[in-house]
Amino acid sequence: MKIAFDAIPLMGRMTGIGYCEAGQVRAMTRMHPEDEFTLNYFAMRHLAERAADIAPYLGGNVRAKHALCVPYAYRLVSTFVPVPYAWYFGKNDLTHFFNYIVPPHVGGRTVVTVHDMVYRAYPETVRSRTRHMLDLGLAQSMKRADRIVTDSEFSRTEIIKYYPQFAEKIRVVPCGVDMTRFHPERDPAKIRAVCKKHGIGEAYFLYLGTLEPRKNLVNLIEAYAAYARNFDAPAQLVLAGGKGWLYDAIFARVTELGLSDKVIFTQYIEESDLCALMSGALAFTFPSLYEGFGMPPLEAMACGTPVLVSDAASLPEVTGDSAVIVKAEDISSITAGLARLHEDEALRERLSAEGLERAERFSWEHSAELLYQTYQEVL
User: Cα separations (Å) of 288 from 171, 252, 314?
Assistant: First the structure.
């Protein structure tokens, strides 16, 4: 087969969509040397940087194809004027778009990944630009696609709820976790050094992800404040990750509750620090309001870190019984979960062991093979 991937999500500072594509692309191209793969991307500026972003995926049966155009400009214009994608990238047997939108007139068959329906379920938590783009283009995109891939059974039911006309096209392909990238850090000195680098003490709860409304961080901060009042030596709360959007309320609530000495914001965490930061945490906290899959809890499990997640959306489907599950919008439930993890060492040890076993079930090879079966079905 001649298979093309839209490579735009792999460029710049990647989000969850980019990491999902990276895991599936790396595994599939390695597992199927008999096929030809192309990474398509638009770029008008910073061409050397964009080429460097793509370089780790190339070689052997994988090549790149670059079109001189601003990616967002093409996406915007093609929403209103059907500028053929094939003008830039020709024809392949199949092209996979990993970020919701299939452009007009793609040469060959198409697959699109629709990760979740957060923009319909919680529109107030989504950037207005993104919401507007999806309002204009998502239904048409799913109509164009030969198959729609999504990350979980939960997301499949959500897509059907809002777009029942596309139910027969949907296939579930769970994400994976790279156990070589995420693994327990056994060296206490490395953990101490990373914590010192980021101004973190010995005991801490960790959140790692974008600072944005649907991550439910204001409720987490409220719950943490109640937890901290009940302990003489409470663990810190570390909120690690870059600023997303509508994040002012998160910083404001920390100040209002007088928690500036206990809640640590670290901004972006370097790749080399991730395992140590996760492995050193008392527990990983992820009480999100809505996730199509939720890769960070699985990555924390791969590091042997006990995990707390909300009961919302796909998170219980991903973590199973290997996490403390709390009610997303019930602050007292989150508080009780933090307190349990603080007090119960046996619980933390059990969740650490069970989480590692759970993470091992979600390999990128399994994910890529399910995706490849979808391609075969289409062709």
Answer: 24, 19, 10
- Residues spanned by the domain of 136: 2-176+363-378
Q: Ramachandran region of residue 85, left (φ > 0), alpha (ψ -120 to 50) or beta?
A: alpha
pLDDT at 247: 86
Model pLDDT for residues 327-378, shown as the tens digit of each residue: 999 999 999 999 999 999 999 999 999 999 999 999 999 999 999 999 999 9
Identify the pLDDT of residue 66. Answer: 96
State the DSSP H helix or E strand holding residue 325, giving kind and residue range, or none if neither: strand 324-326
Contact present, 215 and 312 (Cβ < 8 Å): no
Q: Cβ distance 359 to 177 under 8 Å?
A: yes
Owner of token pair 């919302």: 312
Query: Residue 225: inside a domain, yes or no?
Result: yes
Looking at the structure, tell me whether residues 172 and 212 fall in a common domain: no
Task: Kindly report the pTM of this predicted structure.
Answer: 0.92
Please give the pLDDT value at position 23: 97
Q: What residues does 204 pair with on adjacent strands?
A: 236
Q: How far apart are CA 261 and CA 189, in angstroms?
A: 24
Closest to 368 measured CA to CA, from 8, 119, 113: 113
What is the predicted pLDDT for the residue at 125? Answer: 87
CATH code where residue 208 lies: 3.40.50.2000
The two structure tokens encoding residue 260: 């500036």
Same domain, 202 and 238: yes
Taking the C-alpha atoms of residue 377 and residue 379, their distance in angstroms, rounded to an integer, is: 6
Low-confidence ranges of the chain (pLDDT < 70): none
Assigned domain for 303 exists = yes
Identify the pLDDT of residue 245. 77
Provide the number of structural domains found in the chain. 2
* Burial class (CB within 10 angstroms; exposed 0-12, middle 13-18, buried 19+) of 363: middle
